[in-house]
Amino acid sequence: MTGGPAEVRCLLMRGGTSKGAYFLADDLPRDPAARDDLLLRIMGSPDPRQIDGLGGAHPLTSKVAVVSVPDDPDVDVEYLFLQVGVDTAEVSDRQNCGNLLAGVGPFAVERGLVAAGDGRTSVRIRMVNTGDLATASFPTPGGRVDYTGPARISGVPGTAAPVVIEFARGGSPLLPTGRARDVVAGTEVTCVDNGMPTVLIPAGALDVTGYESPRELEENTGLRERVERIRLEAGPLMGLGDVRGTTVPKLSLLAPPAQDGAVTTRTFIPHRCHTSIGVLGAAGVAAGLRVPGGVADGIARLPPDGDRLRIEHPSGFLDIEAVVGTGADGAPAALRTAVVRTARKIFDGAVFPRPEQTARPSEPSPQGAADDSPSR
Fold it and tell me: SUPFAM superfamilies this protein is in (predicted)?
């Protein structure tokens, strides 16, 4: 049986420090199960190399954005983020992605969903995964998206046009447990949700410095087991239920800044260590740094004035503006969050999904030989 479309219109784009396939909702099956099966075949999953699809063999390059036009006149487009498993046949909608969000506005203009202004265009976006709102602004000289520009973000070579993303205040409490500190799996943490459920953990509490490379942290089996115990116990406390089959909450290890930033981070997403940091993960860290009595006290170095915080990560830094005040209930609340990202169109065309009858994990080469080994 080889059902399903022979080809699907697709735009591959780098958004922030991630890369993903962008689709119009109308170009995908309406049934979620059929849609997810199609996306697995498009991305080449399950296979650790994703050799037969668009995926890049890493969670940061195995992402999908589905964009549609809502009925709500106060919103221009809706954005559903889907995380596609690499070596597992899983498609999850349990989280947002602030990096792919940087490409949603340009994609909406490219597909004619939003008319471009002459000079600059702002697109109001509802993030379907959580219901939160964001506005993305980017250059459109002559009514066309211009991806070139002077903005530089760590983790991406070269420069590109700045995409300014301002997040509307969300409806979820900043502190899901109602406390600035919790003891989870024997470790003091701060649980925050500023667009992404995130657990902040002092690196020293896990017997690491927080300056190790992602590979070193991933190879530390004892650390990964402790981090996963914290995640599984934090999930229900944060109102997320059983998180064994999900990618949230994320976990960020905190250490004093190594350069001129506010803090150094190492973020698990949730089992791989991020080579930089996600936008919404950084939003959670930034807000968490400003929560009085949180675990960042004595670790972070906050600037004496201004809203901007520099979050250091393995490949550089991310600058984010975060304002935390008091909500109507007297609890800490994120009043404003804004960040500058970049995006770039890589290709626009049709992708040909793997046929259904071949949708199975790849088998190892004989004697473990690599596919590109020279013949003898």
Answer: Diaminopimelate epimerase-like (SSF54506)
- Contact yes or no for 124/137 (Cβ under 8 A): no
Whole-model pTM?
0.78
Distance (Å, rounded) from C-alpha 134 to C-alpha 33?
28
CA distance 278 to 339: 11
Quick one: DSSP state of residue 375? P
* Residue 126 banded pLDDT, cuts 50, 70, 90: very high
Give the number of other CB atoms < 10 A from CB of residue 262.
Answer: 27
Contacts of 102 (CB under 8 A, 6+ apart): 15, 16, 136, 163, 165, 279, 341, 342, 343
Q: How far from 202 is each of 42, 160, 173, 212, 264, CA to CA, in Å?
A: 39, 34, 22, 14, 10
pLDDT digits (tens, 9 = 90+) for 260-282: 999 999 999 998 999 999 899 99
The four Cα atoms 23, 108, 70, 126 give a dihedral, to 10 degrees, of 90
- Contact between 113 and 73 under an 8 Å Cβ cutoff? The reply is no
Which tokens is 48 given? 């650790």
Task: Please enumerate in sequence order all residues whose Cβ is within 8 A of that of 62, keeping only pairs 6 or more positions apart, or say none.
Answer: 20, 43, 45, 50, 55, 56, 83, 84, 85, 86
**Residue indicated by tokens 């490379």:** 213
